[in-house]
């Protein structure tokens, strides 16, 4: 199948490579010429602009966007909307906020352009393992480019979630759950790392837990790999970013009156990780000193 691809970062380039290996015809565009040239060497056809990409595709066209969420996605869709024609299909495979996807879908629908919001999970391992795809939008558009989904995903690794917005909504919740899982593993390994008297081997434990344990998972396999490279993670700073989906999940839980304390606390822990010094902790230390005479550690 023929498809255009915009955005050749870590995920985008791996997705294009997986598609090429399965015989799909891909026209690619990226702001970086080196990224385009790299994909051309693997068999893709390059385009120097969005206009050229459109011209190189036979109508009705299908174009997959894999750029950062927010303004980059909005700008790219806005530019493509002015170039595409009726019955063309636009796919956003990034981590856009689902309400924005619903709005963009409505704007494109007025021009007769199909829009699919595709929550994509798999990270850098997707090239070899495949990507889990959560797809929202018109079912007709979904069926038209289903061969693309079949190539990108492992067996049973893609599904139509519902109308526009549903794909990115499910991916948002998926990432909220991911926050909580990561936090649980992190706290458990920190407790074991703190128990110095046993001199525990965290790599060995991660491997052991994946042998029939109820908490076995791919994340534990990755933990084993991380501890193999650096047994005490001494080279890594404990600073954890969030890409937005955790915040959106917590906000949605509040809007829907759903109690989600674990996901919420895992998000707050990420915020705490960015503080070199916590003022709130200083306040607590000062108050304990004032009411109970408890000792405080002084700065030099």
Task: Briefly characterize the structure.
The chain is of the alpha/beta class and 300 residues long. 51% of the residues lie in helices and 13% in strands. An eight-stranded mixed sheet has the order 3-2-1-4-5-6-7-8, with helices on both faces.
Topology, element by element:
Blueprint: E1 2-6, H1 10-21, E2 25-29, H2 33-41, E3 45-46, H3 50-56, E4 62-65, H4 71-81, E5 89-92, H5 98-109, E6 114-121, H6 126-129, E7 132-137, H7 139-144, H8 146-152, E8 158-162, H9 166-194, H10 202-209, H11 218-229, H12 245-255, H13 261-272, H14 279-292
Parallel strand pairs: 1-2, 1-4, 2-3, 4-5, 5-6, 7-8
Antiparallel strand pairs: 6-7
Helix pairs in contact: 9-12, 9-13, 10-11
Protein described:
By secondary structure, the chain is α/β, with parallel strands linked by helices. Strands 3-2-1-4-5-6-7-8 form an eight-stranded mixed β-sheet, with helices on both faces. Helices cover 51% and strands 13% of the residues. Helix 2 (33-41) links the parallel strand 2 (25-29) and strand 3.
């Amino acid at each position: 199948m023929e498809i255009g691809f915009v955005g050749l970062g870590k995920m985008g380039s791996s997705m294009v490579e997986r598609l090429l290996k399965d015989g799909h015809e891909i026209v690619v565009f990226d702001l970086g010429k080196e990224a385009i040239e790299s994909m051309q060497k693997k068999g893709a056809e390059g385009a120097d602009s969005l206009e050229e990409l459109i011209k190189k595709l036979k109508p009705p066209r299908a174009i997959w966007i894999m750029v950062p969420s927010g303004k980059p996605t909005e700008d790219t869709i806005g530019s493509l909307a002015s170039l595409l024609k009726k019955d063309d299909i636009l796919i956003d495979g990034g981590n856009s906020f689902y309400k924005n996807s619903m709005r963009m879908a409505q704007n494109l629908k007025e021009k007769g352009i199909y829009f699919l919001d595709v929550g994509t999970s798999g990270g850098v391992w997707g090239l070899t393992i495949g990507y889990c795809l959560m797809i929202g939008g018109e079912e007709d558009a979904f069926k038209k480019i289903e061969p693309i989904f079949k190539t990108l995903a492992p067996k049973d690794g893609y599904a139509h979630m519902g109308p526009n917005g549903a794909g990115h909504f499910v991916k948002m919740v998926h990432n909220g759950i991911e926050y909580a899982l990561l936090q649980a593993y992190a706290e458990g390994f920190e407790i074991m790392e703190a128990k110095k008297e046993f001199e525990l081997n965290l790599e060995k434990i991660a491997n052991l837990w994946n042998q029939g344990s109820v908490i076995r998972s791919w994340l534990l396999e990755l933990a084993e790999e991380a501890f193999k490279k650096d047994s005490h993670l001494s080279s890594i700073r404990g600073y954890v970013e969030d890409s937005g989906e955790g915040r959106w999940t917590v906000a949605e839980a509040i809007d829907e009156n759903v109690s989600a304390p674990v996901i919420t606390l895992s998000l707050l822990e990420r915020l705490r990780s960015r503080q070199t010094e916590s003022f709130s902790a200083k306040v607590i230390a000062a108050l304990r000193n004032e009411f109970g005479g408890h000792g405080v550690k002084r700065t030099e």
